[in-house]
Specification:
Shape: globular
Number of helices: 0
Radius of gyration: 13 Å
Oligomer: single chain
Largest sheet: 7 strands, mixed
Strand content: over 45%
């Protein structure tokens, strides 16, 4: 059974930073992050392939960086210059070229507030 375990969420002040981690139970071609704010639909944040090709939502470009450690089957999301509108539950996902978000983690809460 595939497992994705997120960690690193918490409460941070505006302008601060957090680093999320997601450890997978296996190796996947694509790994990424999405988020869901209260009352809103889940939205794409960032994705990285096995070849380290990345893409980002416009709302986080220049502030968030996704990376992966293939030896550890782990993906990271470095979040800088955080804004209150970044407050959401952040979900890790993993998959294959034809189904990039086939598997999902349980989510980790990120709250940006003074």
């Amino acid at each position: 059974q595939v497992q994705l375990l997120e960690s690193g969420g918490g409460l941070v002040q505006p302008g601060g930073s957090l680093r999320l981690s997601c450890a997978a139970s296996g190796s996947f071609f694509t790994m990424g992050w999405s988020r869901q704010a209260p009352g809103k639909q889940r939205e794409f944040v960032a994705r990285i392939t096995g070849g380290s090709s990345t893409n980002y939502a416009d709302s986080v470009k220049g502030r968030f960086t996704i990376s992966r450690d293939n030896a550890k089957n782990t993906v990271y999301l470095q979040m800088n210059s955080l804004k209150p509108e970044d407050t959401a539950v952040y979900y890790c996902n993993a998959g294959e070229p034809r189904w990039v978000d086939k598997y999902w983690g349980q989510g980790t809460q990120v709250t940006v507030s003074s």
